[in-house]
Amino acid sequence: MALVRQGVGFVITGLVVGALGIAAGAWWGAGHPIPGFLAHHFKVASRADTKRAREEPRLAVKAVRASSQEVPVAFEYTGTIVSPRDAALQARVTGFVVERPFEPGGHVKKGQVLFRIDPRPFEVALKSAQALRDQAKATLDFAQAEVNRTEQLADKGFATEQRAQQNQSNLATANAKLEEAEAAMARQRLNLEYAVIRAPFDGRSSLSMANIGDMVIENQTNLVSVVQVNPIDVQMALSSEDAEAVRVAQGEGRVKVQLLDVQRQPVREATIYRLDNRFDPRTGRRLIQAWLDNADERYLPGRFVRSRIEVGRQERLLVPTVALSAQLDQQVVWTVDEAGTVHMTAIEVGDVYGDNTAVLKGLKPGTLVVTDHLQSMRQNLKVEPRIAEEVSAVHDTPAAGEARH
């Protein structure tokens, strides 16, 4: 009986072992997956989950093709507004101011009276000079009569040669005295004219510290200044290279000057019309002047302005500035090939034109460049590029980086 039970136990054990073997074979043939509850317990991904992960959709990114565009060749300088006509008026006679018939700081017209200096001392001096002139004229008339009389007597032998010479000398002296008196009269007339200070041209006057009743000194006291404000000039000091570029471009009629606002946007155009005849040996720079319309008087003498000078155009390969990344000291962009694989590409960049940057080396026209999700990019990453419009032409937007002094 015991032997029978023992045999039955062996049979059952064999059946269990066989069933386990069959199950193990089936598990191995199925790719030995881990049961879901065990996978969750041990945090191990099943093969099915791994396969699904591999089949996840590619990262969608925006991309733009690098494009060759025509851009302006320009440079920027800090210019100074100067007036083509700037007069500092001083007193030309000594006296007291009796009238100031203008508003300091306001507009004036050519010939307009600005100051009157007390004319009475000069009127008195003029009358005195007239009296001296009359006296000199009377002396001259008498001397001329003496000469005539002596000539008649000399013809009859009644006058000596010495007397004739003396009369000629008296005549010359009297003539000189008359000219001196007439010069004194002209001087007093000038003083009367100088006693009235007039605007030399249309413009705007400065504030004046000279008031009615003030004593002014000849050639010492500053009364007021007058400047022309429309049109007005901007003056810049160009380097030798830029001055030569301007000279050539001006000869070909393709130079353009623009004044910029604080956002570096052009607000007014100017025309170069004057170049200095030499370079400053201390700075190696050449002065140029350009005139501009200034009817609104936005620009006044002494103001500093940013000026842009365009001398031509050139071809540049452009990419959006937002596509640039930095790897250590190297500028890079993430490019996408035809298979949708991302590659890190080192480039050498040039100037910035609006929202775009020029690429000097490392990139070819038409290359697809990623413009977003840059932090997620890595070498050989598979992406789905969504191609945006090609880099737009920059038109008249010059380089932002070509600023001079």
Query: Which stretches are poorly predicted, pLDDT < 50 over at least 5 residues?
Result: 36-46
Output mean pLDDT. 84
User: What structural class do you assign from the helix and strand content?
Assistant: alpha+beta
**Approximate helicity band:** 25-40%
Succession of helices and strands: HHHEEEEEEHHEEEEEHEEEEEEEEEE
- Largest beta-sheet details: 6 strands, antiparallel, barrel
Q: Which word captures the global form? A: rod-shaped
Any overview of this molecule?
The chain is of the alpha+beta class and 405 residues long. It folds into three domains: 60-71 and 314-387, conserved putative lor/sdh protein from methanococcus maripaludis s2 fold, CATH 2.40.420; 75-84 and 230-313, Elongation Factor Tu (Ef-tu), domain 3 (Beta Barrel); 92-227, OB fold (Dihydrolipoamide Acetyltransferase, E2P) (Beta Barrel), CATH 2.40.50. The protein has helices at residues 2-29, 36-42, 47-54, 120-155, 161-194, 240-251, and strands at residues 59-65, 67-82, 86-90, 95-99, 107-108, 113-117, 196-198, 203-205, 215-216, 222-227, 232-238, 256-260, 266-275, 286-292, 304-320, 325-327, 330-336, 342-353, 356-361, 368-370, 383-387. The strands form three sheets. The chain has a six-stranded antiparallel beta barrel. It is rod-shaped, with a radius of gyration of 49 Å.
